Amino acid sequence: MVFDTQEQVAYFPDRVFSDHVAPNARHEDAAHGNAAHENATPVEAGRTPRLEIGEGTNIGHFNHIYATRNIKIGRHVLTADRVYISDNLHGYEDVDTPVLRQPVRQIAPVEIGDGSWLGEGVCVIGAKIGKGCVIGANAVVTKDVPDYSVAVGIPARIIKRYYPETKQWITLK
Fold this sequence. Notes:
Elements: E1 2-3, E2 8-12, E3 31-32, E4 36-40, E5 50-53, E6 58-59, E7 64-67, E8 70-73, E9 78-79, E10 84-86, E11 88-90, E12 104-106, E13 110-112, E14 117-118, E15 123-125, E16 128-129, E17 134-135, E18 140-141, E19 149-152, E20 157-163, E21 168-171
Parallel strand pairs: 3-6, 4-7, 5-8, 7-10, 8-13, 9-14, 10-15, 13-16, 14-17, 15-18, 17-19
Antiparallel strand pairs: 1-5, 2-4, 11-12, 19-20, 20-21
């Protein structure tokens, strides 16, 4: 499914396919949990944000996905419940202005590789996650994670990687 309108918000009240709810979205066999919220809202004049969710991806309950420039979630990705994915942050630097009134800052595009799994409560903010990755519950991902890695913690750190040349998973220290 692709959101690429000037402002597209989809609220999925039940586990349904997106083309039944969002008329501008292209259905690609992506399932969504209760109250999953996908949003593509521009913060820069002349830029159209893009949110792409690949075929066979399953978005868990109460996920919040907020694109101001570009978020791409690959094919057959699984997100558990209460996952947050964003390519932006609220400004907070001006201590004389409430955070709510400060501008949204673009961080970096987000990509989540094919076949990855994001555990319960994971936050992904302006980072790329490779294919075949596992991100442990409640991890906060702010830096890129290479293909076939397991990452956990706040901030997320890689604890295990698969090496195709040796066909082995190696625990990292």
